[in-house]
Write a structure and sequence with these properties.
Layout: H1 4-7, H2 13-30, H3 32-40, E1 57-58, H4 61-64, E2 76-79, E3 83-84, E4 98-99, E5 102-105, H5 108-123, E6 130-134, H6 136-139, H7 145-157, E7 163-165, H8 169-181, E8 186-190, H9 192-201, E9 209-213, H10 226-237, E10 243-246, E11 255-257, E12 262-264, E13 269-274, E14 289-295, E15 304-314, E16 325-331
Parallel strand pairs: 1-15, 6-7, 6-8, 8-9, 9-10
Antiparallel strand pairs: 2-5, 3-4, 10-11, 11-12, 12-16, 13-14, 14-15, 15-16
Length: 345
């Protein structure tokens, strides 16, 4: 048996690899979807001795299968905002139906411990912040893991000024200026397009506020490269850097960037960068490829996920980090994904 608390006590790369391999074997034995995928790749479980030998389940499986490694009752179901299906089940013809990922969470306390511990490691005590949330696309639907996390952080801050904003931008503008001028430590967490909407209404000069973008234009605006986006946001908010959160419906952990778009993982999460031409091999630091995520907090679903994001690993940004840092450069378009034949069962 794996003690979930061991996941949050990892302090070295050797310890991470040891627990990751243990989790791999556990999930192979207890997750039918993952087991079938590994068998499809002719994986000999007894010969898997390193992270690079572990099969990574394509993230699309969360749209078509129940990915679980436990028989315990499901406590929470997180869903994605949905994407348009590019083909019909018969192939080739575009279908406008919306397909959502579903993450079946059997132990919600693991998610809570994951994001609370990670936030503390990167930002300190949540009670030192006023947490303001501008997440309209997420709060307007049910099943968002991001809303679950931010709502909890708002409550944990124990500050009367913390809270969510929807389309009441004028009220948020007054609150931001008031709090920043009073010297409060403010954390504004916002979806990208909403942050851009906000600075179009008001140009700020904030001195005590962290701006954290969670990504996503959600069809509201044209996608732009990160450097351009962060330059616009820095100028609009009057800050020197933009923080970012990297998470998704299918994960129970988040990586954070404290500026410059370079992300770092908490100790129980790592990324590997796979070759875009061969999904089963990996590229060196500094080279672009597909992002594979190891999230050990996902013990009850799947901890080894091949995402549709493009990225590259970087040298460690801070001393004591065993996993290395990474950048997110964009997403595969459907025509760019290699090895898709092994991703469809």
């Amino acid at each position: 048996m794996i003690n979930p608390q061991d996941l949050f006590a990892i302090s070295s790369q050797k310890q991470f690899e040891k627990i990751a391999l243990k989790v791999f074997r556990f999930q192979y034995e207890n997750n039918i979807v993952y087991q079938e995928f590994c068998n499809f790749l002719n994986t000999d479980v007894t010969k898997v001795k390193s992270l690079q030998q572990i099969p990574f389940l394509p993230i699309q499986f969360f749209k078509s299968h129940h990915v679980v490694s436990t028989t315990h009752p499901i406590q929470e179901t997180f869903t994605s905002s949905g994407t348009t299906s590019p083909i019909t089940s018969s192939g080739g013809i575009k279908d406008d139906s919306v397909i959502t990922s579903k993450h079946l969470v059997a132990d919600i306390s693991l998610y809570e411990q994951s994001y609370r511990t990670a936030f503390s490691q990167f930002y300190g005590n949540i009670e030192d912040y006023v947490v303001l949330a501008l997440l309209p696309s997420y709060i307007e639907r049910s099943g968002s893991s991001l809303i679950y996390m931010v709502k909890d952080l708002v409550e944990l801050s124990k500050n009367e000024h913390s809270g969510f904003y929807l389309h009441n931008y004028d009220e948020l503008i007054l609150k931001l200026i008031e709090l920043d001028n009073s010297g409060e430590n403010v954390l504004l967490i916002g979806v990208t397009y909403a942050l851009l909407d906000l600075i179009e209404k008001q140009n700020f000069q904030l001195k005590n506020t962290i701006i954290m973008e969670t990504g996503g234009m959600k069809g509201k605006r044209k996608e732009i490269i990160r450097e351009e986006l962060h330059e616009v946001l820095c100028n609009g908010f009057g800050v020197s850097s933009i923080h970012s959160e990297y998470g998704m419906t299918e994960l129970l952990s988040q990586a954070y960037s404290l500026g410059n778009g370079i992300f770092e993982c908490p100790a129980w999460m790592q990324v590997l960068i796979r070759d875009t031409e061969d999904a089963l091999t990996y590229v060196d630091n500094g080279k672009t490829g597909g992002v594979n995520v190891i999230d050990l907090a996902n013990i009850n679903s799947c901890s080894f996920i091949a995402t549709q994001d493009l990225g590259k690993k970087q040298p460690n940004q801070r001393a004591g980090r065993q996993a290395g840092s990474f950048e997110i450069l964009g997403r595969f378009d459907n025509s760019d994904i290699r090895g898709c034949n092994l991703m469809v069962m």
